[in-house]
Specification:
The chain is an alpha+beta fold. Helix content is about 35%, strand content about 15%. It has three domains: about 90 residues, no CATH class; about 90 residues, no CATH class; about 240 residues, no CATH class. It is built from 14 helices and 13 strands. The longest helix is centred in the middle third of the chain and has 22 residues.
Length: about 500
């Protein structure tokens, strides 16, 4: 009989969640160890001794004491009954569950192993293919693929998964049950590879939406303690930093593709790698656009009238998801600096001026980053303080999209920095607007909360004889610093 309380059961669930997270982070050994720990605690909790004379509260206390003691013992190598290797079963008694979990870890875990990456790419292509062909996802439907290339991909996927899971478990069986049901970690990595600006900031998994992140609006202070000259010394001076909260609310970004039902297996096969890349690229661009150009102001009062595709900004534009660099810079203290109106000061001087507006946050160059467009970069190449990567060499730790350094601060190019702005840094869709901008950001001030990674769904529309394929993800971007802190500044009219 199971004797775990509700609270203890919750702890066991947390062990499972920790194992899944470890697998997704690429630490398979840690995942296996956590699952083994969970199994052994669960088994040992069944051995708690109780007597009929004990009251219910005494029984609960005895179980809690035994549970905590077992957990403490088993958390150390010395307390484990046996040592276990990577070939041990991960959960224990049910081999099919063991192999299924191993398969899931292979698909969702980050890895540098060539075979694992191959498995993940096959997973993504078959997953996309099944959706494009009308939502095929079950074993039977995938087995019905008649195109020889697709059937080979299915066979290759299952054989490779079978090989890799066998190396992780002692379970018997075949891989006929393996079917792609979600995007892999490699697909997520492909999207993240396209992220330039988003990669500047830390991200975290949101347990709920909305999720409250506590912030500290100020810092503790230290004081000088004078020697006590009496029996009643002066109380040591204390400081109480101000605190607050930031709420992360997951926003859904999507990419929708419409495919005619006439599409066949033969026509899909050659373009599967292209579609996979396009989905990742489209979602990455949407995130970048929202971080740089996001503006939640009412339509018509926003910084931009049109988007970067010359389409009118509407309620479904990525820039409506949250406030980005430009809106934050324009809304807090009017931090934007006009390059042309700076009284003849050079571009280099103006870029240093926007750094100066950051105040105390502008002192740590390792935590800063300049962001601009291709056109902005071409202007900065003429600055004496600019260092290209060829001058820096292998000693530098480079950021994704980084092209050089300016005053030892990384310079990152993003395709989402606009080059159609007027002299005020606003895009109104007017012809002849050819200006760009540059921003400097204090990277720790912002975080990205992720509630759900890439997911694809499809549905056939009988009214149009088409298939709608929609890729979505849910996330949010917020500053975790106080509203009085200047953590991003913008130079316009470049």
């Amino acid at each position: 009989m199971k004797k775990l309380t509700t609270e203890q059961h919750a702890e066991m669930v947390e062990l499972s969640k920790a194992a899944i997270k470890a697998a997704r982070d690429g630490d398979i050994n840690k995942a296996k160890e956590l699952l083994e720990l969970q199994r052994r605690i669960n088994e040992a909790a069944e051995d708690v001794s109780v007597t009929p004379a004990m009251s219910m509260s005494e029984v609960k206390d005895a179980i809690a004491e035994q549970f905590n003691e077992l957990k403490k013992q088993l958390m150390t190598p010395q307390g484990r009954k046996t040592e276990y290797s990577s070939s041990d079963a991960m959960i224990g008694k049910n081999n099919s569950i063991d192999r299924s979990f191993a398969h899931t870890m292979l698909i969702t875990g980050k890895s540098t192993d060539a075979k694992v990456k191959e498995l993940q790419i096959l997973n993504d292509e078959l997953y996309i293919c099944s959706q494009l062909l009308g939502g095929k996802s079950g074993t039977k439907e995938i087995d019905e693929f008649v195109n020889p290339t697709l059937r080979y991909k299915v066979m290759q996927f299952r054989a490779l998964s079978d090989e890799l899971t066998r190396a992780m478990t002692t379970a018997a069986g075949s891989g006929n049950e393996w079917i792609p049901t979600a995007f892999s970690a490699e697909m997520i990595a492909l999207m993240e590879l396209q992220l330039r600006v988003a990669g500047l900031h830390d991200s975290f998994d949101m347990p709920t939406s909305p999720y409250t992140w506590p912030i500290q609006a100020g810092h503790a202070r230290a004081y000088y303690s004078q020697a006590s000259g009496s029996d009643d010394p002066t109380k040591l001076k204390a400081s109480t930093p101000a605190t607050g909260n930031v709420t992360f609310t997951a926003k859904k970004l999507h990419s929708r593709v419409v495919v005619d039902t006439e599409v066949t297996e033969d026509s899909i096969v050659p373009i599967l790698p292209f579609i996979r890349t396009e989905f990742a690229y489209a979602m990455a661009l949407a995130v970048e656009d929202a971080i740089i150009n996001g503006d939640t102001s009412a339509l018509g009062a926003t910084l931009d009238v049109t988007d970067m595709y010359a389409a009118t900004i509407d309620s479904q534009s990525p820039s409506k998801a949250w406030a980005g660099y430009r809106r934050i810079a324009a809304g807090i203290g009017g931090m934007s600096i006009d390059n042309a109106a700076a009284g003849g000061v050079t571009l280099q001087g103006n870029l240093r001026d926007i750094r100066a507006t950051l105040g105390k946050y502008g002192s740590d160059m390792s935590q800063l980053a300049y962001i601009t467009s291709v056109r902005g970069h071409s202007k900065m190449l003429k600055i004496a303080a600019y260092q290209g990567l060829d001058k820096v060499g292998p000693r530098a730790v480079l950021l994704n999209g980084q092209v050089g350094f300016l005053d030892n601060i990384p310079l990152v190019i993003s395709p989402r920095v606009r080059e159609d702005l007027n002299g005020s840094g606003v895009s109104g869709g007017a012809s002849g607007a050819t200006m760009t901008m540059a921003a400097i950001v204090y990277r720790p001030a912002f975080k990205i909360g992720r509630k759900r990674s890439l997911t694809v769904k499809s549905a056939e529309n009988i009214n149009t004889d088409q298939i709608d394929v929609v890729v979505t993800q849910r996330l949010d971007f917020q500053s975790i610093y106080g509203t009085s802190d200047t953590t991003v500044s913008v130079l316009v009219d470049i």
